Model the fold of this input.
Amino acid sequence: MKRLATLVVSVLFLGVLAGCGATPKEGPDGAAGAASGAMGADGTALGRSGGYGSNLDDPNGPGRMGRGEMGRVIHFDFNSAMLTAEAEQILAYNARNLAKTSGRIQIEGHCDERGTREYNLALGQQRAEAAARFLVSQGIPANRIKTVSYGKERPVVKGHDEMSWSQNRRAEINSQ
Amino acid sequence: MTCNLKPTILALFLFPCDSTPQPGVVEIIDAVRKVPHWNNRGLSTPKGGVGIVMRCVGRWFVSRFFNKVTMTWVGLLSLWLCVISHPALGALRIDITKGGLQPMPIALSDLVDLSPSGSVLGQNAWGHKLNEVITADLERSGLFKPLDPKSFIQSPAELWQQGPNFRDWRLIGAEAVVSGAVHEKDGKLIADFFLHDVFQGSLVGKGKRFTAPLRDWRHVAHRIADEIYTRLTGESGYFTSRIAFVASNGDMKWMALMDQDGANRVDLTHDRSLVLTPRFAPTGEQLFYLSYETGQPRIYRWELYTGKRTIQGDYPGLNSAPAWSPDGQRMALTLSKDGNPEVYLRDLRSGDLRRLTENNAIDTSPSFSPDGSQIVFNSDRAGSPQIYVMDANGGNARRLTFEGSYNAAPAWSPRGDLIAYVSGGGGHFRIAVIDPSGQNGRTLTDSWMDESPTWSPNGRVILFSRQTGSQTKLYTIDLTGHNERLVKLEDNINGSDPSWSPLIK
Done:
């Protein structure tokens, strides 16, 4: 049941994200933001959310939290672990919420499907650690945070184009 | 059962005796194949051992002879005893260093099925099955062109009983011809084969006998194919080898082993954890691999014939990219415990760890040179992933690749002469090779997403995975860039992360 609730929250969140495509702030970057808007407009956003939902069913996946207005997912440029301005805003928002709790935080780093498996594992690790360092800079104790890289093994969107890849290059902040 | 004298005379004529007595007619190879058996608790130890037994064949022959076994083929073997003093290696040879060469026309006749007493049975059930595997192996190598058996003038039985009528084989354009026989005894398959040089009208090497449990019949066929390959190319073969890989079907992913031709698949992992990058030990009896069974990527060692599994360290963050040192004593790996993915060296006995790289960039995918003195790896210390070589203790890193914006996943050839890697550019990722000196880089494949190159045991062929849309399949290609082939997987599953074993005897 808890998982179902998480799924519903995620779907709602993605719906919000897609619907607000016109707001530059919402998208991970310009192109993807525009893409989200387009997806929302033709009603396929739910299909993509469905893909997201099936990922949540993964027995290996840690418990997710659904955090309403602003997400717990940040996105990256190709082959980069640098935090974008949007990513920092999302992380700062998460840090404010996490500061009110004391549970453990797991940050997952992910990549798109291009490039080699081992390099992507390393890149996913760097993405997770970039997010972790930012949370620590916002006052979250480092010993609450664990990082894990899935490389290119756990895409959110299974397409083979830039629209899908931009969604898959990400870090997810999960708290327990 | 008739005692056929004619072939004896013919054989005498074809293979004049040398005065020097030789001990062996046929090398006897005990070809018991170790098979990892999967059960619920893990892999169990198979019965029997592995090993090459080269006995004094004279004794074998004498006992056979005086047991009054029919002389149809035993007689032939006895005469070939004289022949091995002419190890006719030399005339017939494929130069496999050239690319795009004309494959050698070879006549692979079905082995003849014999009764336990040695008489020729009418139907070649085993012989045909063995020959199918031998033919497929040699054809896939791209170095041989097996001729259509329909064109053969001499029947398998005639070929075995009378020796090759070389004029007939010349007529159909064969440069080499293989004759053989197979029989069952005490639940074992016993296969004898001979390789002939058609133009010289002589044997190439000795006859050889392989003995194996019936269930290992494919193993026997691969051994024969390796013999033929070795005698005609001068290099060791690679058909008696296995591939470890990550199999997938829909959302299911698991680790599996199979023969190099895709047969005999054994599924190794049964839980639903993500598993990645299996790596064969230099002995072929253990694997390193990555598993997320604790929720974190950790390296495990799996002993294939005992089923024993041990975690190889539990360092915070990323543990990945395990690579065996050629002596099997050390592992190079990637750890992020010091804040950034770096290459380390771990002593497998003591667990001692030594850091080999130190910079703010990603360093990963280490692979040892065959002499163990150097490690090739990839690093984006210069801004994009490129291939570097360093000493095995970490010093003297130097950059090998300067072309392309994404060069990664290097694999050092077991011959030492080349490094295979993934070369990315223009949205494509291809398999490429380069000299360890950084010279003569060239791209071998052209597709959208090729990765995970791994070498055949003889360093002539590269196995890799190719993603096309949502499908990922395994392919091989010669280091010359010719002869790209799909490896057919049983049940049409997907395969990735291949690791090619050493030769399995």
